[in-house]
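SAMPLE LOG
Freezer: B-3
Tube label: C17
Construct: single chain, 291 aa
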Amino acid sequence: MEDQHIPASLFDCPVVESRPVGSYRLISFVAREVAALARPGQFLMVRAAGQSLDPLLPRPIGVHELESDLVKILIEPVGRGTISLAGLRVGDRLSVLGPLGNGFDLNGEGPALVVGGGIGAAPLAFLARALSQRGREVRCLLGFKIRGQAVAAELFRNQKIDVYTEDGSMGGMGLISEPLPGILAEMQAGGPENAISAAGDSSDGAIPADDGETGVAGYHRAAEIFACGPDAMLAALSGIAGDHGAKAQVSMAAHMACGVGACQGCVIRTVDGYRRACSEGPVFAAGEIAW
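STRUCTURE (predicted):
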């Protein structure tokens, strides 16, 4: 995807906000250099500053949002490392290495469908805002297990959002792979305002499509999917995107130790062999992954 080629640095950062967001915890810290360099889809290696060697390794956390010189991350406390991070309070300090990895390629045109599953939705708020600022039509489809997780959707400010929970406690009920085909088809269906001129030009990537029922030429906009979440969700999404002729970029989660490609511990199997999620990803074209 979009290679950043920016050398990462290690920063000592003061925490200025720590609050619950349903089942998650939002941590904001001052990191002017990180805020200036970070791009949607990149991540940070984070640990509490000055802590003991238990846990030994920092945790990879996606950049949730930026605000001036503040960097925001969303923590799901599920293991020793993330529980430690979720326990940080205002005045504590973080040791932060980053920004790391290659982010999403934002250079396309046409409508963008941003799809997140669980804590994988966290870095997509930053992405959705960046896409909107580029003038693209953005719609977010977010899936969670329970309401306690789904309240994180409130962090996607000023965005069109569809929320689903597996237990139906908030939004629609079911997996997001179920409504995805319909939403994607809806976004790709163009109206008169999306019509291609006689010369075949279109600013939003519309292409003519034959309406088999009416015999009247309709229009089809080339939508693009941006996704982060569990592997099973991303695999299903990749297939749906292919069926609808949509491009898809996926952010792949992997266990990381170093975050800079040295330890080879976060390899992802692609159609061209194994690649490191931390340095060659974490964002890949969906068609590159060997699902």
